[in-house]
Specification:
This protein starts with a helix and ends with a helix. α1 packs antiparallel against α3 and α2 packs antiparallel against α3. It is globular. By secondary structure, the protein is an alpha+beta fold. Strands 1, 2, 3, 4, 5, 6, 7, 8, 9 and 10 form a 10-stranded antiparallel β-sheet that branches. Helix content is 25%, strand content 49%.
Length: 154
């Protein structure tokens, strides 16, 4: 139920140009940096969801999430595991000419909650740094992601 409430509130708040959307429901909180959106889809620079509780094995939760999230442009795989965080990235990344584009998803345990942060980047071969790319999602894809997070973390 909280997932549907969050999607409804995002759709209510979006429209037009850049904005930050903050929504809380059912103990979860979502922050989206929106470049552009309409009633069907949005171009997001970032999507952060804070969920109550921390799974007993964050690394296992990361592997489960990687196998569940099959609706992005590239599949995700666990890249790095720390004591209180797990990094997932597109594997393989999308390559174009001299660049690579990929999703980066961090799971971070913070006290009594888990933060999930999703972004998309582009790197250029032989150049340092990376550029934030918008992630274009239909609201149905966001709903699917939030349902996956609910299944794994709540």
């Amino acid at each position: 139920m909280w997932v549907e409430n969050i999607i409804r509130e995002i759709q209510r708040q979006v429209g037009g140009g850049r904005r930050t959307v903050n929504v809380a429901a059912g103990g979860a909180a979502l922050t989206a940096e929106v470049r552009q959106a309409d009633s069907l889809a949005g171009a997001l620079d970032s999507l952060t969801v804070v969920l109550p509780g921390v799974p007993p094995a964050l690394d296992e939760a990361g592997r489960t999430l990687a196998s569940s999230v099959t609706y992005l442009l590239e599949p995700l795989a666990v890249l790095e595991i720390g004591t209180d965080r797990v990094l997932l990235r597109s594997r393989p990344p999308r390559t174009r000419d001299r660049s690579a584009e990929y999703y980066e998803l961090w799971l971070r345990a913070a006290g009594e909650s888990t933060a999930v942060d999703l972004r998309r980047y582009r790197t250029q071969r032989h150049q340092s740094g990376r550029e934030v790319l918008p992630m274009t999602f239909t609201w149905e894809q966001v709903l699917h992601l939030l349902n996956d997070l609910e299944t794994i973390f709540l």
